[in-house]
Inverse folding.
């Protein structure tokens, strides 16, 4: 499975962001990616005062363009996230997933909202303008099941565990850690979620933009089921593309059977 | 809270191992440690064919000596682990915990047994000669609650989570990763369990002995609730002592309220 991760710059101009996505897909098409992942909030500056203004309903302009691009390039498109507006006026941080024909095969609304207030560091209260989702997202592909969550969702070991118990062999995470949490926690979070669940983890972030009100750490990352970094970017915009073999999941689980060794006679993570 | 971690060599001679513990406690007494942690299987070579031969009942010779030492040096002694035999003939990998008066205030029997068979790496089937425990171990001290688990228990995010939900602000883990799993997973496991639960984690391992049938990775480690390494040893025998402030747990939880942000309306880890 050839997986591409696009660490793009995010501009205030929505059209420009969509053109950027198309340009990346055009540039990488000779490499034949099967799966392409965009960053969190790839067509809206990561600023809580702008989420509503930039939001669109499902089936809107951005959605339609993404569907068209998935079909045009015959890829599974895990379309980062955008602010999604619903009739009742609420706004979600939502990731749409399209298959090679451009059909939506799943969507994820960020479940855990990022409310943080670090002394001398970052303050960001996402829940002031966003509503949290409530569903686990796992989709079927020709390669096997793939789970999706968004950024802060990765902080909660329960969520990755539930995705892997639902059969996900890859967990894709559009995210945007910042310059406080990024250097401290980004890499080890992706490595340990991969390792604990023996899945591939895929973190895709916007490129760093020092003029933005929220500075993304970038560092898009791909980790193996053994917790090993397969590839990793720095702060700049660009993309990486890697060929991964999902059979590695079964191989690692055979050698170090962590999921089997869970003491389900003593504890269990229950969905409600 | 001054916490000492003893990364000792383990000899085939039980008496010698107990003398070593006493020597370390004598050497560090001017530094006034409050809590002292020994490694997993500190008085039995880590060899599954020897666990039964080296095993003792609770209250036996090793237990008595440890109790005596805790009282003599007025320390909380988290006494690594030893093979514990029970009347029915079963053997557990057990850690005893003593208070400053030498009273046993808790004990932990390793819950997750280490059965691994890595291609071109380590093979070790602990469950062939050991019986797994079933209880969560959290003890009260004058500093607050401290949780204890043993080595492979750290692989399971559910277990650390349950300990922290029971109030543990420090999770102590006598362990002995090997030269395959150690370099790959030891550090990130301690960092992410600390980070996810916003507790201190304390890994204490035997020193490396290249002639042993099982080669310990050593690398005893102390990690803050922010996931930062406070101190770390290498392969050699010796000890480290650090002064930690358990108020840091509350400070980190205030700034980045991960435990509060769990979506307990959607999932919960249930004990059975």
């Amino acid at each position: 499975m050839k997986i591409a991760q696009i660490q793009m710059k995010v501009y205030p101009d929505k059209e420009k962001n969509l053109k950027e996505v198309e340009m990346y897909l055009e540039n990488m098409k000779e490499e034949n990616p099967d799966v392409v992942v965009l960053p969190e909030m790839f067509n809206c500056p990561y600023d809580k005062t702008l989420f509503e203004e930039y939001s669109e309903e499902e089936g809107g302009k951005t959605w339609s363009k993404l569907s068209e691009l998935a079909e045009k390039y015959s890829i599974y498109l895990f379309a980062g996230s955008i602010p999604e507006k619903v009739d009742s006026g609420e706004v979600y941080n939502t990731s749409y997933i399209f298959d090679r024909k451009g059909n939506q095969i799943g969507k994820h609304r960020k479940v855990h909202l990022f409310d943080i207030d670090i002394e001398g560091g970052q303050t960001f209260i996402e829940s002031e303008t966003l509503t949290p989702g409530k569903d686990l997202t796992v989709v079927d592909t020709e390669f096997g099941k793939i789970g999706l969550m968004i950024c802060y969702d990765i902080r909660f070991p329960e969520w990755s565990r539930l995705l892997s118990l639902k059969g996900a062999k890859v967990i894709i995470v559009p995210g945007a850690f910042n310059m406080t949490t990024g250097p401290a926690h980004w890499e080890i979070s992706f490595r340990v979620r991969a390792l604990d669940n023996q899945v591939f983890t895929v973190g895709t972030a916007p490129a760093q933009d020092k003029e933005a009100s929220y500075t993304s750490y970038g560092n898009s990352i791909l980790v193996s089921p053994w917790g090993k970094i397969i590839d990793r970017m720095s702060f700049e915009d660009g993309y990486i593309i890697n060929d991964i073999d999902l059979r590695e999941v079964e191989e690692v689980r055979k050698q170090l059977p962590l999921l089997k060794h869970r003491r389900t006679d003593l504890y269990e993570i229950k969905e409600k």
Notes: Chain B has a mean pLDDT of 96. Helices of chain B lie at 14-28, 51-54, 61-72, 157-165, 181-197, 247-255, 258-261.
